[in-house]
Amino acid sequence: MTGHALPGEEATKNDEIAKGFTEASPARGRDLLLPFGDAVGVVLKAYLDDSGSDADLRGVVIAGFVASATDWKRLEERWVRLEDKRQIGHFHASKMRRRGGPCDGWPYPRWHQLLSDCTNAVTYPGIIHVGGCMLSETWARYGAEVNEAMRPRQGPNPKPMTADVFCLNHALQQIASVTKRYFPGEHTGIFIERPATGKQASMKETLKAYTTSPPWSKYLTSTGIGDRDTRPGLRVADFAANATFRHLRDFIETPKEPPPMRDPFSLAITQGKIESAAKYYSDEGMEEALRMIKEGVFASEEVV
After folding, report:
1. Above 80 in pLDDT, residue 129?
2. Exposed end of the chain (fewer CB within 10 Å): N or C?
3. Cβ neighbours of residue 52 under 8 Å, at least 6 residues apart?
4. Phi, psi (deg, nearest 5) at residue 136
5. Model-level pTM greater than 0.70?
């Protein structure tokens, strides 16, 4: 995996993760496999979402979670119960506190409690946070150089890589790494929120490449694109995308003086309660990515 580690990444709990995955291990039998999409049964599922157009983020995020199909079933059930209990409808981070939104007018402590509840819902062994993210200004400095370095390895008439696609590449590589490590010989089904019109073609092409071309097709399969209103897993991923950037904000904008009321998701990662493989591409991380692109290993199995 590439990039610059998020703070707290070193606080892993590999034994707990392995224990959490045991339920869906192939050694325990195929009866635990659940259908994914319309075509394939998989041991693992990954739900991803992007940061959308939320002006408050000022960055690019592709994030979500990867877990066994069994754990996803339980997580989605927990999420729906949480939405019902808090009477917020379907969770959509960028709309929650807007005028007319379900949390419009909430005092901050009440909003903070909802974020705590959401964080608790995803804090279980075997549920791994994945993603790639960067500040928009970082891509503005490095995007052209990244595309220039990629050009010799692309076919004729290459399409410029966007920050979203760059981060999606990293998230998919992380998911492949989790699959290879815990479920050798198995595949992870990928499910994403339907991209905005301007992003659809590039996002779909990237997903198709990773699920149909070696070496990634050994680990990833069955891309599904859907609507968060019908897939609770996508609402969980929406929370992950928004929370991932909040985690970065804690350490980028106030690295020495964290906010008095620390973001619950950020706190859970730094305390090692959530296993996170997400990467923040700082200038240092982009320099590393450029080196790997030039050496031809950025999108090779060497990063898994």
Report:
1. yes
2. N
3. 94, 196, 241
4. -60, -35
5. yes
